[in-house]
Design a protein that fits this description.
Helix content is 56%, strand content 13%. It has 296 residues and is of the alpha/beta class. It is built from 14 helices and nine strands. It has two domains: 159 residues, NAD(P)-binding Rossmann-like Domain (Rossmann fold); 125 residues, N-(1-d-carboxylethyl)-l-norvaline Dehydrogenase, domain 2 (Orthogonal Bundle). The protein has a six-stranded parallel sheet, sandwiched between helices. Bound molecules: NADP nicotinamide-adenine-dinucleotide phosphate (NAP). NADP nicotinamide-adenine-dinucleotide phosphate binds next to helix 1, helix 4 and helix 12.
Length: 296
């Protein structure tokens, strides 16, 4: 059976891994990235490098975007040479970036005007899972579009969960990352507290990591902080973005996400201290250093 033609828009940490995975699985692939240099390794692997999002979309039956935020997604789908201009009738559009519900609703309407279906299909998993085909897709949108997108999504992920109507996948993703962000911020404060109180950090963390607070998120962050390696898997400023989208969406549903607001303040402080482009685990170092400064 011939594989569908796929386009990937956005070759950052996640998009480049996903594109590499599709190429390795033999999908005819077109790619677009604002900074063209990032497409070079994929071109070497056989991908077609499009000059505009519209051109990439015109060459595909399934168009997947993996971009930073609402602003980037709007630019790539609806900008001057945006993907919607190139998408032929019936193309399945997959927004896998973590974006707001408000934007998904607007994009779904624009897609429908173009006689295309939109799936919101953000993911859990990070850099390694994107490159290894182990993402989990949280999907909203029409079942018929999901059936068309499945051959590509099932190469990129090992689980696809369809939540229902358009926007429902995005809502689930924001809930997931709001909890992850809160856990990261709580850990950062716990470590600042451990240091300030003179407890042995290693011994104290072994209690937290092996006890009730030791979630997979807490374990991952503790490992990264112990190694002192803040090479981005997920940049800190994007976690702040997810928390702010979650707060807005919670509020639209009359739920006041107070823990998310507290976590966002901690991530914003880390950004102000220059940690925005580091891995989000650097919130630990930023918070510990901030507490030390206050004490001195
Ligand atoms: P990233 O490495 O920072 O890549 C961001 C991508 O967005 C790049 O392709 C960048 O293009 C593009 N972009 C940013 N602003 C743009 C603009 N104004 N116009 C056009 N393109 C723009 O981010 P990532 O880690 O791959 O994350 C991508 C999405 O997946 C985000 O929504 C993130 O929240 C979500 N996500 C990330 C992870 C993770 O662990 N990393 C996990 C799950 C979900 P340039 O290269 O030209 O800058």
């Amino acid at each position: 059976m011939t594989q569908p033609r796929v386009a990937i828009l956005g070759l950052g940490i996640m998009g480049s891994g996903m594109a590499g995975r599709l190429l390795a699985a033999g999908f005819p692939l077109s790619v677009y990235n604002r900074n063209r240099d990032k497409a070079k390794p994929l071109a070497d692997g056989g991908a077609y490098v499009a000059g505009t999002p519209a051109e990439a979309a015109s060459r595909a039956e399934i168009v997947i975007s993996m971009l930073a935020d609402d602003v980037a997604s709007r630019e790539i789908w609806l900008g001057e040479n945006g993907a919607l201009k190139g998408a032929v009738v019936g193309t399945v559009l997959v927004e896998s970036s973590t974006v707001s519900g408000l934007w998904i609703r607007e994009l779904a309407t624009a897609a429908a005007e173009r006689k295309c279906d939109l799936l919101d299909a953000p993911v859990t998993g990070s850099k390694a899972q994107a490159a290894g085909g182990e993402l989990v897709f949280l999907v909203g949108g029409p079942e018929r579009a999901l059936e068309i997108a499945k051959p590509a999504l099932s190469v990129l992920g090992n689980r696809i969960v369809h939540f229902g109507a358009s926007g429902s996948g995005s809502t689930m993703k924001l809930i997931n990352n709001f909890m992850s962000g809160v856990q990261g911020a709580a850990l950062a404060e716990a470590i600042a507290f451990i240091d300030a109180s003179g407890l042995n950090r290693e011994k104290a963390l072994s209690i937290l990591v092996n006890g009730a607070p030791g979630s997979p998120m807490v374990k991952t962050l503790v490992t990264r902080a112990a190694a002192g390696d803040f090479t981005p898997n997920f940049v800190l400023r994007l976690m702040a973005k997810d928390l702010s989208y979650a707060i807005k969406e919670g509020s639209d549903h009359h739920v006041d996400l107070r823990t998310a607001a507290a976590a966002l303040a901690i991530f914003k402080q880390a950004i102000a201290a220059g940690y925005g482009e580091k891995d989000f685990s650097a919130v630990i170092e930023a918070t510990a250093n901030g507490a030390k400064k206050l004490a001195s």
